[in-house]
Write a structure and sequence with these properties.
single chain; 827 residues; Rossmann fold; Arc Repressor Mutant, subunit A; 6 domains; five-stranded parallel β-sheet; three-stranded antiparallel β-sheet; disordered N terminus
Length: 827
Amino acid sequence: MAVVKRYNPNKFYFSDRLTEKLESICESNLTVVEAPTGFGKTTSVRNFLNNVDEPVLWMTIENDDREYFFEEICNHIHNIDSVIAGKLRAVGCPEDLEMSNKIAGILSELDLPEKYIVVFDNFQYISNTIIGKTIIKLLDVFEDSVRFVVLTQTVKSTSMIDLIFNNRINYIGKSDLEFNHEEIKMYFRECGIKLDDNEVDYLFKYTEGWISAIYLQMLHYLSNNEFEPDAGIDKLVCKAIWDKISIEEQDFLILISIYDSFSLKQALFIGGDELTADEIKKLLKSNSFIRYDSRDRKYFTHSILRYYLKSEFDKLDIIVKKRVYEKAAKWYEENENYYQALEYYYKIRKYDDIYYMSISLEDIVPHLTKDNKNMFLQIVSGVSLETKEQNLRRSIIFSFALFIYNEKDFFNKECEIITEMIDNSKYLRQREKDILHGEVMFINSFGKYNDLNKMYDMYVKAYEYMQSPSSIYSDKISIIFKNPSVLGCFHSKSGEAVKELENFEKTMIYYYKLTAGNSKGLEAVMRAEILFNQGNFQDAELLCQKALYMAETRGQVSVYICTMFLMVRISGFQGDYDNIKYNFQSIRKKIENTGENDKSSMADLCEGYMYMLIGKPSSIPNWLKDEKSIEVRCPILPLVMANIIYARYLISNNEYSKFLGISGQMLGSTKVYNNILFEIYLYIFIAHANYKLGNKVKAIKFLNEAVDIAKNDKFIIPFVENYSLIEDIYEADAKHQDRIDFMNDVIACYRKYDRKFKSVQNSYREDMDYGLTNRELQIARLAADRLSNKEIADQLYIAVGTVKSNLKTIFSKLQIKSRSELKNFFD
């Protein structure tokens, strides 16, 4: 072998064969580049796109957090059209076909100023069937204005696999990125090294054309004048990179390896004790396995080096690992990313440090999910009493997590401890004590949720202490905790609804004082719900207008959603489908415009409830069709609402045994805060399920349970809305005239409004497009009516081939396989 004196092992080389494939990116709406790690996907595509005229949007996906991925897309779109970005955020990351269709519809409104190339790097992290289908839908939406490039280690989306198999999209695979004999020779020559044929044969046999192995062998040769025989990739990394840098540089790379990406400022903070700033900059610049993205202003470590560093990190002593995590925590804390700091402090069990941060209730509330329950409970129980005493505000903040997780005893005990600490404090002035007493009293009041008398007493005392609004409570939290039924939250005793309303009204006076008007208007909604459930739609609608005014003038999104949901239900009894549609659109638009995207789950509950009511279970959001998803997404108060939607969904699918098997658990959820309005619904569903399974005696028993809860308040609507489920069960019993009178009112209301409700169902069916174009809808409806392809073609004056191709698209969009299944959509 002859080595030229001047060599550059970091020089890029792209074969003519690969360059030709890369050039096809500019001619294709979708290009998929699929190969395992280390085959040069990112390097090849990025280098090629650096020289194209179109602007390139490059998104590097760092983990499997699809919500974060979707938010990043929204951020980029926000720079073009903030309104469209808001609409996308309101829908959220697509989880089902309906959401996918909504996103495609929203993006069809986007007016792009120029053509773009959009790259999704490391797509394997977030790829699934729905996201794959969404990208494919966008090919039709954007046509030639956007070209998508997907870089992935493996294609998981069946839709993309089908397109690749049928040669309908541009595909660059592992074989296109592998070097052949001649390309290995040319690559080395470009770097200043001349190989003979035997050496090329050896490298090809050893590496099979894998560029990462070829590159590492080159580095090894330049240092040792020979190739490394029989070496695995880890050994090559070790000899070609690891052994060539100092111990301090090794330590720095290990320290930084816990991050998917990092900024220069972050690198200097993390590695400042090991290396100087110039040494860090030089190391990052000279290492070919660490790439800088000037758009994101971040460094990304190649997966080959990252895997190696992870193995080195795993070898570290536990004490050293703790130091690494602690430094990460301090970095995030200093940059006011308090929740990320909390996670790293939690890893090393430094609970006290968490309480010393300037973390707020608003920082932790979005993360109070089921998955994080153990973490928050361990933090609260693990912090020393001394630290709690020195950080009383943080103690109050973290005690709120115990309420959200329904840890009643723990919550009450924690509030007692904090109160005692305030009383015994030698450092606080009296005014400071009063304010903290008021704050803990206010937070503690939530432990008495739905006992309005106790809540009122505690609100009064809290305000007497503070004489001003709480500085701890977040204005993003509403007293209904994302449950769209105020009455459902606060009706706890049969026959007491009006009295409960009076208690709620006086309680809310002090709640408003303590929260500077948070949730203003809920008492009007509760009064309207009482009237509605008694069948008084006219007066209920008038009160809705009052509540709507209060919500709009004070910017209360939760109140707005509750009000519009009730108006949707009223519109159902008026047969006004257009108003139902308009109100649901208004809810979504309100979420978009205010940016309160966490309220999307409230909108889902509203839509899910109404879709079940009009007999369209397929249209409810996917997460409401699965008990595990419901438990993950819902704290206890929205959970009771989600449960009745899921219960009705199971019944609509004739899954009576499954529903009865979990009905006890659902009833248990209503008992936590005595939400008896939801009990009524569950007893109706339990009665129907028992009847369908042949147990009429039990069915009658449970129907009577529901009637006995509802009759004293004259709440007939749960029975009217679900009359089709109970009409074969109900039998008048002369021994119980009160039940007979109640059910007579139910039957009279049902007969009066049944036709109007059915008109809503028919209008809904006619209006649903299921993501189909107008032409596809025409063809789908005719095919559902059993017309042949020729008959459809003759009627629409189109070719038979056009009918066939459209039917193929229709089947794909609706996820069906035959014409007979179209009846489920267009019956």
